[in-house]
């Protein structure tokens, strides 16, 4: 069986293109989901949705999106907000750099473009966090521009439509599929067509078990004609997350809990959580690395027993966490900006990554007298 590469594909045949456009848009008109970011063509609303949808399922995003838009209904509202407030509103979605980049970008739009989301590719693609896909989605859906918006769903659809064996994990494949997509996008409904492509990939042309019998363009699909749809797309395996041993400190002073702000760069940048260290592999006693780190900050504590263990997987890291209890020395009120004492009832004003929510729940369940925290925090 010969394998076609996008590098030597001829121009797509016009009759095939017309059939794809006609049948896919007719299906979309009848089957598109009622999603909150589709109520109008407001570029700000579309922008927020596309950032939230990165690496996150639609059903997961919807309630977060609705709460976020209620809190920041306009671009100006978001631009004028404090970063901590924005991150708090994003809490639970993960990949928090998306929220920070979005916030920085809308501030740039306010400062440089009079609050109007740019309509030029060169300008919008320079905004922080706006890559080729997001730029294409905004320009096509909000501004009816005939530009591609190629994400994983779209690459899967094109790989099957054209029986392509290119590795979709490669940037070069995405760029090649963009050149193919622009040939198929109709001039009169570019935004609808791009959304129809995404919808087809999400509802019909799924990764493991495509529902070919329900596909509106099954007669045009080369992979289905050859019976190879289950073999495509080709995607090289990503490296598994690296396991890392981590210690959280449950440091108390009476009813107060010590919180630490993560560094401004790197994993969970700038967010609040329990004091955290990656363990020294030569650590001889439980919590030794954490104790040394806190002492360097001028904050001596007496650590005790383990309160429990958990695992949490990020895209490139797998944290294997041990939570260690500890008591602060009396009089430890003068802390650096990285630390603060917080009463349980005040925690809800801070944004906590999910891994710390998991840790707090675990401790709440295991320690008598802490259960009341859970009701006030969650």
Automatic annotation (TrEMBL):
<dbReference type="InterPro" id="IPR015797">
    <property type="entry name" value="NUDIX_hydrolase-like_dom_sf"/>
</dbReference>
<dbReference type="InterPro" id="IPR005760">
    <property type="entry name" value="A/G_AdeGlyc_MutY"/>
</dbReference>
<keyword id="KW-0378">Hydrolase</keyword>
<dbReference type="InterPro" id="IPR011257">
    <property type="entry name" value="DNA_glycosylase"/>
</dbReference>
<dbReference type="Pfam" id="PF14815">
    <property type="entry name" value="NUDIX_4"/>
</dbReference>
<keyword id="KW-0411">Iron-sulfur</keyword>
<keyword id="KW-0326">Glycosidase</keyword>
<dbReference type="InterPro" id="IPR023170">
    <property type="entry name" value="HhH_base_excis_C"/>
</dbReference>
<dbReference type="GO" id="GO:0016798">
    <property type="term" value="F:hydrolase activity, acting on glycosyl bonds"/>
</dbReference>
<keyword id="KW-0479">Metal-binding</keyword>
<keyword id="KW-0227">DNA damage</keyword>
<dbReference type="InterPro" id="IPR044298">
    <property type="entry name" value="MIG/MutY"/>
</dbReference>
<comment type="function">
    <text>Adenine glycosylase active on G-A mispairs.</text>
</comment>
<feature type="domain" description="HhH-GPD">
    <location>
        <begin position="52"/>
        <end position="203"/>
    </location>
</feature>
<dbReference type="InterPro" id="IPR003265">
    <property type="entry name" value="HhH-GPD_domain"/>
</dbReference>
<keyword id="KW-0004">4Fe-4S</keyword>
<dbReference type="InterPro" id="IPR029119">
    <property type="entry name" value="MutY_C"/>
</dbReference>
<dbReference type="Pfam" id="PF00730">
    <property type="entry name" value="HhH-GPD"/>
</dbReference>
<keyword id="KW-0408">Iron</keyword>
<keyword id="KW-0234">DNA repair</keyword>
<comment type="similarity">
    <text>Belongs to the Nth/MutY family.</text>
</comment>
<protein>
    <recommendedName>
        <fullName>Adenine DNA glycosylase</fullName>
        <ecNumber>3.2.2.31</ecNumber>
    </recommendedName>
</protein>
């Amino acid at each position: 069986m010969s394998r076609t590469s996008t590098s030597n594909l001829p121009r797509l045949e016009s009759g095939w293109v017309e059939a794809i456009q006609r049948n896919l848009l007719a299906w979309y008109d009848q089957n598109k989901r009622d999603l909150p970011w589709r109520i109008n063509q407001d570029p700000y609303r579309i922008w927020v949705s596309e950032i939230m949808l990165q690496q996150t399922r639609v059903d997961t995003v919807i309630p977060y999106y609705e709460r976020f838009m209620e809190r920041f209904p306009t671009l100006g509202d978001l631009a004028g907000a404090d970063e901590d407030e924005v991150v708090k509103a994003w809490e639970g979605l993960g990949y928090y750099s998306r929220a920070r980049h979005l916030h920085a970008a809308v501030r740039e739009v306010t400062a440089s473009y009079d609050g109007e989301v740019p309509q030029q590719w060169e300008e919008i693609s320079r905004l922080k966090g706006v890559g080729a896909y997001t730029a294409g989605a905004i320009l096509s859906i909000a501004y009816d521009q005939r530009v591609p918006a190629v994400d994983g769903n779209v690459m899967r659809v094109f790989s099957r439509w054209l029986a392509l064996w290119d590795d979709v994990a490669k940037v070069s494949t995405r760029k090649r599929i963009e050149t193919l997509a622009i040939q198929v996008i109709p001039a009169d409904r570019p935004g609808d067509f791009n959304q129809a492509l995404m919808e087809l990939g999400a509802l019909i042309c799924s990764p493991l078990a495509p529902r070919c019998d329900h596909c509106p363009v099954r007669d045009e699909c080369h992979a289905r004609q050859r019976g190879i749809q289950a073999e495509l797309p080709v995607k090289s395996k990503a490296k598994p997350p690296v396991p890392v041993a981590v210690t959280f400190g449950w440091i108390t002073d009476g009813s107060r809990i010590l919180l630490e702000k993560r560094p401004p760069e790197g994993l969970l940048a700038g967010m609040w959580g329990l004091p955290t260290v990656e363990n020294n592999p030569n650590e001889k006693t439980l919590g030794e690395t954490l104790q040394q780190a806190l002492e360097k900050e001028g904050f001596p504590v007496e650590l005790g027993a383990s309160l429990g263990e958990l695992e949490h997987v990020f895209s490139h890291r797998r944290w294997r966490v041990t939570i260690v209890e500890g008591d602060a020395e009396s009089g430890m009120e003068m802390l650096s900006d990285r630390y603060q004492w917080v009463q349980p009832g005040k925690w809800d004003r801070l944004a906590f990554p999910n891994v710390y929510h998991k840790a707090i729940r675990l401790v709440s369940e295991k320690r008598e007298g802490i259960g009341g925290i859970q009701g006030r925090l969650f």
